[in-house]
Amino acid sequence: MPDDQLFLHRFAIKPHRHLDEWLELWPREIALLRRHGYTVHQAYLETDAEPKLSWLYSHPDPAAGAAAVAADPERAELDALTAPHVFRNVVVREVRAEVLRDDLAWPGTVVMRRYWITGGWPSFLDVWRDIVPVREKYGFECLFAVADEPHDTFTWAFTFDGEWPDFPAAQRGYYSDEARVRLRGVFDHMADYALHPARQLPVD
Questions:
Q1: Domain limits at 22?
Q2: What superkingdom does the record give (predicted)?
Q3: pTM over 0.90
């Protein structure tokens, strides 16, 4: 886990040619942050509607890092180049990592889950932490999990070795496992949730 402050950064990208042109600029975005002391951990592109990017990065001194990036002339240049291809719905949150598997590169389908937490974080996390090993027993490896406690939002992702239409059938064994059945109370702690297919983007 990083000792530095971790951020979850999300926004939507226009589809088709806009996505292709934005992806050409993506390596420059990573290089810009790294040049000013950021560690870029992981990035995922949701693929079932307008593409949405979720990426995780950290910095030991976030205020200094943000100021240095803002002062770099490439920031303004990249903003101008990406503006035609993205929506203006950027959300950047400070988050706390429960899981951060920077060592696990996954070429296949990624399942992104987002929960809106109710009833308190400790009771939710007690259940969720028991869910992860049951999921992993069925091949769903957790890639990351982060808590945005001020906004009661929990985001995590895991691997799926298959195509998205096959995901519901692939979960049947997991949900019928007695260990998972005992953890159904996790829904007591979720006001709502969202589920999306994604793919991992390179951050090298």
A1: 5-95
A2: Bacteria
A3: yes
